[in-house]
């Protein structure tokens, strides 16, 4: 039997059901990964950064380390979610939940140093969306 055989795809136990919200998760995560990467590059290169004095409580004198943290906590996990969505992986839901939680952690760590902003509110919404859609996808797949 072929995976492309539509007549038996719904009854065969060997054909995986599609992950719920795959396209939405892929697009949201892909755009977020690109935005996170752009932000990380800006921080590492010192382009359009907040004042370095915001980092005084951490003892840092440049935005390089926060830029690497942004890449690690947002760009990479969201990029992984986008790739898993494109590959139609069964692990998409779990990866989306993890990426959403890491994005939320990034925001919680960021706010005390640069203050609240509209961008953080938008990204907080994205984090919530990744978690909720990831949980819905996991439930639909039956994995917990």
Automatic annotation (TrEMBL):
Q: Which domain of life is it from?
A: Bacteria
Residues passing through the membrane, by range = 25-44, 64-85, 92-111, 117-136
Alphabetically ordered keywords of this record: Membrane, Transmembrane, Transmembrane helix
What is the protein name for this chain?
Integral membrane protein
Protein source organism: Nocardioides iriomotensis
